């Protein structure tokens, strides 16, 4: 096979080019292939064009594929497709164990070496339109149109008959094939010629379209979205974490949710039907509509339209929810494009029913949406206040590594954005001043609107102002109390609002509030009474909240770390505790910052300061154990031991 290394490299580059272009490829779909006289290399089912490598293509023996045209397959639909699939699997070269695309036979039909099959919204604006065939004949007189039919072997037969007839009448091989309610095939003997053909088609369509849809996001009522998302998340995930994404634009608000499915991809990833919720429906009403939809259709809605608000997409994972959203937005774009060609012509009911129950598409969806091995916090939404640096960032890193989606909350929004960017689509940055009620309320609503809910709230934001009784001002004392004590109260008050909704509609689901306290919450702290008092008080809140929230399956625990001597709280050269304690004379005889550090290290049996990983492990313990609440967990290296 090394003989074709250059051609396969060109195939992979072409695949990556089109696969990464949202104008051509939707939800990682599409297909490409290269053929020699004896072999066909084709993308495997459920794999992504955007990232495929030369060695990733499934290798088929063309002689065995050719025999399939003359096979006597069963008349029964299910038996026929099973037999076709088996023959296709048997047509792989020896040692090949990946599953080839369902469209392999179609790719093999074309005599040209390079094939690109994609589903661009502009193309489907034509293929899903009432006057699509007539428009194609006018715009692309040398192209071939195949009417909607069942995919798989039946579609391949229809295309073979049409392509044979085309060649008999024109004396040429077809290089441009439009499939009604499906997509388009481009064929050429070089990648360069294929690129020219694809660009010409897209440019011609762009010139023929009278209205381009406006898909720009628009402002929406965040508070309303934050009231609906946890309900949908609980109903969709039941007692497992799910993801709910929201989007609003003019096209969504104008879309008729009764529009039937336009293409197989829309069914595979967004389901054949979507749930519509009238404006003003309360949470119980949403539950009733959701459950009735599920009972009627046999599946939970992936897409939920709320009248006058926008569109929610649901998934067991972020990838699933985002894919459903992207596919539904594509369908909405296609509807807009069909206006230029006589309006919508949806898939016929028999074809919709076939796709819904077709094993091949079910397999493709499962492979495409596979999220890999489950991690300890997979798909949970975790919020970390004060998460841009220090303990907060260290905790967030561990939670992300364990599979959580992370909301970084900080007054330093740029720092929060930088931190969240490390987590890609799993990260989200939000500004909040935890001592300000409106700021906390807005922060929680933004997070819930973005991720769909909250599973773990780590109340980490804190402040230290050291000093003795003579020098401590009332203003400084109240600032420490406002951030450390009142801030924990405000965060708990608003974070538990979506948590209680999740519990109401998924009663078995468990959630957590974890306050990052301090060893100073377990024992007094000389000349640091403002901080110690706020932390003692916060443990009183932990215990009280734990009793109040237990009926909602919300556990509340505190973690009491020792000193993070390497973090900015201690080591900042201007505002850190080392310099504060030195200036306050808290360490007798200390003349330098190094003296202060050695003093605090000597107090720890483990002979070092506490690290973020130590605290993060305690957070994980609080989340994973199902029985303890209202506890203060020391992480002090033995410096403070509980009686």
Side-by-side strand order of the widest sheet:
3-2-1-4-7-6-5
Mean pLDDT: 93
Share in β-strands: 5-15%
Q: Biggest β-sheet, characterized? A: 7 strands, mixed
Give the helix/strand class. Answer: alpha/beta
> Unreliable segments (pLDDT under 50, ≥5 consecutive)?
359-365
Shape: elongated
Kindly state the number of beta strands: 18
Radius of gyration, in angstroms, nearest whole number: 30 Å
Please give the count of helices: 24
How far apart the termini lie comes to 71 Å
This entry's quaternary arrangement is single chain
Helical proportion, percent range: 40-55%
Description:
The protein is α/β, with parallel strands linked by helices. 46% of the residues lie in helices and 14% in strands. The chain is built from 24 helices and 18 strands. Strands 3-2-1-4-7-6-5 form a seven-stranded mixed sheet, with helices on both faces. Strands 14-13-12-15-16-17-18 form a seven-stranded parallel sheet, sandwiched between helices. Strand 5 (144-146), helix 7 (153-170) and strand 6 (176-179) form a beta-alpha-beta unit. Helix 5 (121-127) crosses helix 13, helix 16 crosses helix 24 (612-624) and helix 18 packs parallel to helix 19. The longest helix is centred in the C-terminal third of the chain and has 32 residues, at 474-505. The protein is elongated, with a radius of gyration of 30 Å. It starts with a helix and ends in an 8-residue tail after the last strand.
């Amino acid at each position: 096979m090394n003989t074709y290394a250059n051609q396969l490299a060109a195939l992979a580059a072409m695949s990556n080019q089109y696969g990464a272009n949202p104008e051509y490829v939707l939800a990682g779909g599409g297909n490409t292939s290269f053929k020699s006289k004896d072999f066909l290399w084709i993308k495997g089912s459920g794999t992504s064009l955007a990232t495929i490598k030369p060695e990733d293509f499934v290798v088929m023996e063309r002689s065995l594929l050719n025999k399939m045209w003359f096979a006597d397959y069963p008349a029964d639909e299910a038996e026929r497709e099973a037999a076709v699939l088996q023959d296709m699997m048997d047509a792989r070269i020896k040692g090949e164990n990946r599953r080839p695309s369902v469209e392999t036979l179609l790719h093999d039909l074309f005599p040209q070496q390079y094939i690109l099959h994609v589903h661009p919204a502009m193309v489907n604006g034509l293929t899903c339109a009432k006057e699509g065939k007539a428009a194609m004949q006018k715009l692309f007189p040398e192209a071939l149109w195949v009417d909607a039919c069942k995919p798989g072997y039946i579609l391949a037969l229809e295309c073979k008959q049409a392509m044979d007839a085309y060649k008999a009448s024109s004396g040429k091989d077809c290089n441009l094939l439009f499939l009604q309610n499906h997509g388009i095939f481009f064929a050429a003997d070089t990648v360069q010629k294929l690129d020219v053909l694809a660009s010409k088609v897209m440019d011609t369509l762009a010139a023929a379209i009278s209205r381009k849809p406006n898909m720009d996001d628009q402002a929406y009522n965040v508070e309303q979205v934050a009231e609906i998302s946890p309900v949908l998340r609980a109903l969709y995930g039941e007692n497992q974490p799910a993801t709910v994404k929201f989007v609003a634009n003019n096209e969504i608000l104008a879309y008729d949710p009764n529009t039937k499915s336009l293409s197989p991809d829309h069914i595979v990833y967004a389901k054949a039907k979507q749930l519509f919720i009238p404006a003003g429906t309360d949470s119980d009403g949403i539950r009733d509509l959701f459950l009735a939809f599920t009972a009627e259709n046999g599946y939970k809605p992936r897409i939920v339209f709320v009248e006058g608000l926008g569109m929610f997409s649901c998934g067991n994972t972020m990838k699933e929810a985002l894919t459903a959203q992207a596919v539904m937005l594509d369908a909405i774009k296609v509807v807009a494009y069909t206006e230029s060609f006589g309006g919508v012509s949806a898939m016929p009911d028999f074809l919709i029913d076939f796709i819904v129950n077709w094993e091949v598409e079910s397999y493709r969806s499962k492979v495409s949406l596979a999220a890999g091995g489950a991690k300890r916090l997979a798909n949970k939404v975790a919020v970390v206040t004060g998460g841009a640096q220090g303990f907060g960032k260290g905790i967030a890193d561990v939670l992300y590594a364990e599979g959580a989606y992370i909301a970084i909350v900080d007054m330093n929004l740029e720092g929060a954005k930088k931190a969240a960017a490390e987590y890609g689509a799993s990260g989200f940055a939000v500004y909040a001043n935890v001592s300000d009620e409106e700021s906390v309320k807005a922060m929680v609503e933004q997070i819930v609107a973005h991720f769909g809910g909250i599973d773990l709230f780590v109340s980490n934001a804190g402040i230290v102002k050291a000093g003795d009784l003579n020098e401590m001002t009332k203003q400084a004392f109240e600032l420490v109390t406002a951030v450390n004590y009142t801030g924990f109260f405000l965060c708990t008050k608003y974070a538990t609002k979506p948590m209680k909704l999740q519990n109401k509609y998924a009663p078995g689901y468990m959630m957590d509030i974890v306050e990052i306290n301090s060893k100073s919450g377990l024992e007094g702290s000389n000349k640091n009474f403002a901080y110690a008092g706020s932390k003692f008080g916060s443990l009183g809140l932990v215990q009280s909240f734990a009793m109040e929230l237990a009926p909602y399956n919300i556990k509340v625990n505190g973690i009491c770390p020792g000193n993070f001597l390497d973090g900015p709280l201690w080591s900042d050269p201007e505002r850190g505790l080392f310099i504060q304690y030195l200036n306050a004379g808290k360490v007798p005889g200390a003349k330098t910052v190094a003296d202060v550090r050695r003093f605090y290290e000597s107090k720890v049996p483990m002979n070092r300061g506490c690290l973020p990983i130590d605290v993060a492990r305690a957070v994980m313990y609080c989340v994973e154990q199902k029985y303890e609440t209202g506890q203060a967990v020391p992480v002090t290296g033995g410096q403070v031991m509980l009686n």
